[in-house]
């Protein structure tokens, strides 16, 4: 199989590859080392590991395994004879004890007793977080050894093949139709360089296109006519702008020169990843999993350049398809002998090949008994031995603290993602995303932090470094019913926006904004159809401020209160108030009513104070001088003075209640700020009853 055209032209030995990398790609490798997660780690000496405690299955082969190796060698001889131009297959590398083991027997299907490990995303994220990536010694050849998943878990490091075998073992144990893949990939994928990729946390969900109404009776408007003269003038202008376009092309050429150099080993770099076929576990579509990142990829992804072979715990398949265009045209129907050459017949396994009817099988056995005996011997000889790997175990402490170095740092395009284990930080911080304005990671633009197990139910914090605006997000259940809180300082009256879980509040308040001059409240689902209340404040008395009196004792004077209402369909429009304004200082009340469908001008009523008359709370003076009304659509009974007099009495009473509600809202905001300041000063983390590792750690600390 020809993976790429470059593979035909370049026939390099490992020594040539190393010299090529040192001479041509020294700068590129330095960039890779900076971007790689494991670049700051010293090289681990695998020859110094202790293998004396390993079971006997690691050190010797059973007779089934010896027979399997002979069959694999026979298959390999036929393969090299029929396909002399193909690269050697990765079939039976040595394990940590130096014993050759067939790759399928290295896969140990295991289902770990953790809820997240029952899904492919949980398995993939655990493997990529728990293990430290080690590059292949030679980038164009597979490794000479393949250690057991138990040893890889013990030392928490490995190459792409080690990652893949461990992840495939967990996926098969969880019920997925997963396979290990030996193939070729790009430099960025093989070296775990994600500096050119967008951080997954920054990816926006795909927009759902609006479905057009397929109405064949819609009016089709004629195409707008175009003037030939105008088209000629546009053509002349385009000719005049051609020199400017040539200058732009020169600038583009300069930009292309600044782009990174093409990888001389493109199409030759060996990589291993996981293939998950559709069908089992209701997987709708076949996809790849990069074990280094745990991210899913489409089978048409251009980062995957070719496949040599795949295997699981039962069999081994060789790809017989052309990979000159990568993997996008490959068929993953493993039962197709023209696309995949299977090593062992799967006639006794009903999962891949279509089975014949039992009647036909019995007829064949009766007609030819010797054939039945021969078939039984073949099935016995091709039965895959059990895995030689011991049971894969992950303790609760290892599962809850997957980062061997305390944290993990991943560099993306103009972004840096940091991860910590739960309870590693005293404030419950488990993840931080820093977005930069440049690719050199110097100037911060935005910071997002995620928290776990906080008693104040804070789970995310966003910080805009340009405006210094902080937004805290809370889970349901906070004592103050907080959902989000935006601020620049926890000092009162400095600009705060608070969102609430309005379904848990009696008044239906879902958002409140307050600063020194105003306060705006938004409501949802109220019986009186109120949706917005806006309050304007005046300045406090300066004498009181100098005396050092608190804000509670020196409240801000209320200048104006505005309320807005939705339409109440049970009332006539000329009786249903849309806007209500209380000018407290000027003693003016203004009402604006809703419109009917055929109306153009809204009805209004304005009550103002009589000039020259002192205001008394227990007195209402109503005359035509202090009342302005415009109700063109109302009936005669709504135009008399008695109706206006009763309405003014109601408004005066509601104004008092509104002023008290505004004071209560101010007091609530002060209480929220006090509580939040205390929560940030004394952060407490809750320990789940299922967190065995944390409870043991706390118990050891107290003893």
UniProtKB/TrEMBL annotation:
Major site of localization recorded for this protein: cytoplasm
What compartments host this protein?
Cytoplasm, Cytoskeleton, Flagellum axoneme
**Which parts of the sequence belong to the Dynein regulatory complex subunit 7 MORN domain?**
406-688
Give positions of region: Disordered: 21-48, 235-254, 349-370
Give the CEP76/DRC7 peptidase-like domain ranges. 270-343
The similarity annotation says: Belongs to the DRC7 family.
Name the UniProt record assigns to this protein: Dynein regulatory complex subunit 7
Give the organism, scientific name.
Answer: Aegithalos caudatus
């Amino acid at each position: 199989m020809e993976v790429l055209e470059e593979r035909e032209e370049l026939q390099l030995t490992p020594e040539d590859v190393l010299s090529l990398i040192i001479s041509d790609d020294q700068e590129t490798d330095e960039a890779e080392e900076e971007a790689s997660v494991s670049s700051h780690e010293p090289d681990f000496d695998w020859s110094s590991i202790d293998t004396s405690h390993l079971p006997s299955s690691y050190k010797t082969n059973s007779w089934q395994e010896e027979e399997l190796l002979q069959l694999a060698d026979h298959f390999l001889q036929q393969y090299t004879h029929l396909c002399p131009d193909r690269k050697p297959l990765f079939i039976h590398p040595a394990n940590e004890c130096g014993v050759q083991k067939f790759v399928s027997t290295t896969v140990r299907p295991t289902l770990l007793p953790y809820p997240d490990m029952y899904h492919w995303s949980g398995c993939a994220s655990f493997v990529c977080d728990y293990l430290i990536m080690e590059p292949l010694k030679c980038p164009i050849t597979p490794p000479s050894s393949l250690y057991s998943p138990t040893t890889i878990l013990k030392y928490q490091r490995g190459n792409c093949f080690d990652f893949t075998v461990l992840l495939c073992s967990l996926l098969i144990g969880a019920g997925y139709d997963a396979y290990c893949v030996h193939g070729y990939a790009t430099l960025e994928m093989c070296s775990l360089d994600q500096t050119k990729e967008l951080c997954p946390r920054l990816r926006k969900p795909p927009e759902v296109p609006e479905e057009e109404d397929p109405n064949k009776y819609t009016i089709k408007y004629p195409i707008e006519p175009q003037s030939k003269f105008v088209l000629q003038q546009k053509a002349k202008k385009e000719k005049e702008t051609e020199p400017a376009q040539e200058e732009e092309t020169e600038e583009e050429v300069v930009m292309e020169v600044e782009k990174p150099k093409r990888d001389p080993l493109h199409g030759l770099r060996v990589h291993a990843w996981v293939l998950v076929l559709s069908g089992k576990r209701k997987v709708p579509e076949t996809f790849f999993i990069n074990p280094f990142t745990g991210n899913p990829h489409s089978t048409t992804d251009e980062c995957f350049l070719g496949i040599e072979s795949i295997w699981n715990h039962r069999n081994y398949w060789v790809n017989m398809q052309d990979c000159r265009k990568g993997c996008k045209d490959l068929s993953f129907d493993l039962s197709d002998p023209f696309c995949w050459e299977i090593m062992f017949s799967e006639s006794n396994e009903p999962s891949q090949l279509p089975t014949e009817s039992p009647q036909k099988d019995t007829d064949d056995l009766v007609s030819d008994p010797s054939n039945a005996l021969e078939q039984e011997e073949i099935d016995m000889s091709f039965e895959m031995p059990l895995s030689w790997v011991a049971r894969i175990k992950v303790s609760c402490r290892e599962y809850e603290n997957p980062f061997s170095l305390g944290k993990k740092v991943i560099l993306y395009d103009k972004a840096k993602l940091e991860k910590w284990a739960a309870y590693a930080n005293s404030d419950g911080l488990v993840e931080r995303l820093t977005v930069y304005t440049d690719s050199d990671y110097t100037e911060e633009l935005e910071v997002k932090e995620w928290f776990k197990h906080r008693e104040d139910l804070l789970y995310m914090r966003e910080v805009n470094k340009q405006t210094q605006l902080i937004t805290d997000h809370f889970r349901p259940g906070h004592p103050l019913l907080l959902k989000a809180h935006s601020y620049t300082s926890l000092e009162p009256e400095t600009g705060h926006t608070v969102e609430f879980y309005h379904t848990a509040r009696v008044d239906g308040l879902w958002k409140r904004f307050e600063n020194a001059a105003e306060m705006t409240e938004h409501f949802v689902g109220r019986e009186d159809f109120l949706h917005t209340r806006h309050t304007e404040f005046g300045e406090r008395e300066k004498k009181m401020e100098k005396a050092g009196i608190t804000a509670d004792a020196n409240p801000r004077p209320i200048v104006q209160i505005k309320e807005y209402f939705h339409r109440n369909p049970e009332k006539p429009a000329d009786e249903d108030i849309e806007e209500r304004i209380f000018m407290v200082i000027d003693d003016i009340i203004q009402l604006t009513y809703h419109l009917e469908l055929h109306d153009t001008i809204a009805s209004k009523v304005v009550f103002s104070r009589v000039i020259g008359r002192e205001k008394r709370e227990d007195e209402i003076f109503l005359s035509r001088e202090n009342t302005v009304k415009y109700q063109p659509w109302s009936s005669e009974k709504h135009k008399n003075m008695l109706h206006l007099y009763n309405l003014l009495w109601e408004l005066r009473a509601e104004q008092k209640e509104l002023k008290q509600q505004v004071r209560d809202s101010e007091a609530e905001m002060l209480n929220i700020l006090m509580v939040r300041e205390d929560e940030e000063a004394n952060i407490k983390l809750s320990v789940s009853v299922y967190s065995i590792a944390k409870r043991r750690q706390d118990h050891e600390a107290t003893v």
